[in-house]
Write a structure and sequence with these properties.
alpha/beta; Alpha-Beta Plaits; seven-stranded parallel beta sheet; 23 helices; about 15% strand; binds adenosine monophosphate
Length: about 575
């Protein structure tokens, strides 16, 4: 029996969400709410304000997007926005808009991302045409408010997403200014990965008797801790399938389970891994019992060596042969991590848990480490060279085994005849080459970009870790070498063009992989600005800033020509 869509999302239905949203969620292959969703959605639907501590990867976007959509009147005529979500970067503005759009599919909700760097004209036209939800970076939102093109008087709900990141980027005043313009009776939601005092003070000022949710409070399942070697790899999303293949090649698990978030992800990844020569089987809640039994039988008999599954589908499974648990994404809560890795490392054997995290999810890894009181070592994804070496090593051991165990007499005649003409070592090398190629070592030549750890990046900034930024000139720094591991970039616009530090941080974080914390000292002079960025990202930042606009204008961007005095 295949469960129907309503049963599939019963976890969500229990939360009191409207049918259009339940259909959308089921269509996306979500099988159950994540802990943050379970805790945040009911009070938000009641109209309460909320202060949530949750990092990327916990499912926090749906936790506020679904309640926003719940409040959208059916068949609403185009008008001023009813919801405003403030986010630190363009990347997030686009991501959140896409999520709202997907969840609001059946409601016909109009959502518009607005962020710096994008021509303002298109945003103006869309705003004039009328939208329901605006997802904006603070700087650009303020621009539109100043131009009176973004009307805030109809707002029912305001969300500050990744508030700590916005503060790090210097947007505190902008946020205050924006909130001043919104109706007093609005519902306010604040999500932040960390809760420094500055966030608490914003919450005190702008939130009314908020419900507090802290995902970290989840405690690990009691009982004997399994013996598990835990490691993680930081991998940009586009490289995840390649990275998974490579890690599996090096680890060579007997049997592994790979956890995905949604049914779609399970199906896609199973197909990709099969295409890469693994024997992978999918397991998710959309499959009937018979189908599941068949999959399990194939895994138990060794006909399959990789099980790709959602949490729900894998619940209660006990697979004796399992040696590796792979989290294809960071789990949505520490508790879920503990459940997953508990599937290996039983009965005194050592198991292996591997987590692939996107760079943005690094913080969630730290949370899991803290809550589970276990160490997750972040390792480098094997390079193409590592992989080649590993494959040669496998060929070497196969040959060694053959020398020791096989009857090779049969082949002596080939060697003898070739030896009349060639050196024995040369003959051996040709034979090794053929054996190596015949082992089916798949060609995987794609280099995966190395993502430095935040801690490493901070180390390069002289351990400061925080953005140092000044609105005023700091001319004594000019002519001095930038901090260790940092390069200073010249930007041909300064105070007289209305440039503020947060505009530069915003532009850089929008256009490159750096976040606010990665950016070093900033100096703003009248006609130009100087920004320190980590060496490894210099070219990327320069290229990106040349493509974009800062405060609506194209500017000169180059490495600062530094002359030691
Ligand atoms: P977020 O923490 O909001 O960035 O979400 C992380 C990822 O989890 C996104 O790719 C979402 O599409 C996905 N996601 C959110 N909620 C669920 C859920 N209940 N089940 C499965 N995936 C989810």
């Amino acid at each position: 029996m295949t469960p129907n869509a309503t049963e599939d999302t019963s976890g969500f239905a229990d939360l009191g969400l409207r049918p259009e949203l339940l259909r959308a969620i089921s269509g996306l292959g979500y099988e159950e709410p994540t802990p943050i969703q379970r805790e945040a959605i009911p009070p938000l639907l009641e109209g309460r304000d909320l202060l949530g501590q949750a990092a990327t990867g916990t499912g926090k976007t749906a936790a506020f997007a679904l309640p926003i959509l719940q409040r959208m009147p059916a068949g609403r005529a185009a008008g001023a926005p009813l919801a405003l979500v403030l986010v630190p970067t363009r990347e997030l503005a686009v991501q959140v808009s896409e999520a709202v759009h997907r969840y609001g599919r059946d409601l016909g909700t109009r959502v518009l991302p607005i962020y710096g760097g994008q021509p303002i004209g298109r945003q103006l036209r869309e705003l004039q045409r009328g939208v329901d939800v605006v997802v904006a970076t603070p700087g650009r939102a303020l621009d539109h408010i100043g131009r009176k093109t973004l009307q805030l008087d109809s707002l029912l709900i305001v969300v500050l997403d990744e508030a700590d990141e916005m503060l790090d980027m210097g947007f505190a005043e902008d946020i205050d200014a924006i909130l001043q313009e919104t109706p007093g009776e609005r519902q306010t939601v604040l999500f932040s990965a960390t809760m420094p005092p500055r966030i608490s003070s914003i919450a005190r000022q702008h939130l009314k008797d908020p419900v507090r949710i802290q995902i970290e409070r989840e405690t690990a399942a009691p009982g004997e801790a399994p013996r598990v070697r835990q490691s993680a790899y930081l991998v940009p999303r586009a490289y995840k399938p390649t990275a998974l293949g490579r890690v599996l090649d090096v680890e060579a698990p007997e049997a592994a389970i790979v956890f995905c978030r949604t049914r779609e992800e399970v199906d896609q990844l199973t197909e990709t891994m099969n295409g890469r020569g693994y024997r992978a089987e999918a397991l998710h809640g959309g499959m009937g019992q018979e189908q599941r039994d068949r999959v399990m039988a194939r895994l138990r008999s060794g006909t399959a060596d990789l099980l790709v599954a959602t949490d729900v589908a894998a619940r209660g499974l006990d697979i004796e042969q399992l040696t590796h648990v792979v989290n294809y994404n960071v789990p949505s809560a520490p508790e879920s991590y503990v459940h997953r890795i508990g599937r290996v490392g039983r009965a005194g054997r050592e198991g292996v848990a591997i987590t692939l995290a996107e760079p943005r999810e690094h913080r969630m890894l730290k949370t899991i480490e803290r809550v589970t009181k276990s160490r997750i070592t972040v390792e480098k994804v094997p390079t193409v060279a590592d992989l080649r070496a590993r494959r040669l090593e496998l060929t070497r051991s196969a040959l060694e085994e053959s020398i020791l165990e096989d009857d090779l007499e049969h082949f002596r005649v080939v060697v003898d005849t070739l030896a009349d003409e060639f050196d024995l070592v040369e003959i051996a090398m040709a034979a090794v080459k053929l054996a190596h190629e015949a082992s089916g070592a798949a060609a995987d030549e794609e280099e995966i970009p190395d993502v430095p750890l935040r801690a490493e990046r901070e180390g390069r900034q002289g351990g400061e870790g925080r953005v140092r930024r000044e609105a005023g000139g700091r001319d004594e720094r000019r002519g001095r070498a930038p901090s260790g591991g940092m390069t200073r970039i010249f930007i041909g616009a300064g105070r007289s063009a209305g440039i503020r530090p947060q505009d530069l941080v915003g532009a850089i974080a929008n256009e490159s992989r750096l976040s606010g914390r990665d950016i070093g000292a900033i100096e703003i002079a009248d006609r130009f600005s100087l920004v320190e960025v980590p060496d490894y990202a210099t070219e990327e930042v320069i290229a990106a800033l040349r493509q974009t606009t800062i405060k609506g204008r194209k500017v000169t961007v180059r490495r600062e020509r530094f002359e030691a005095r």
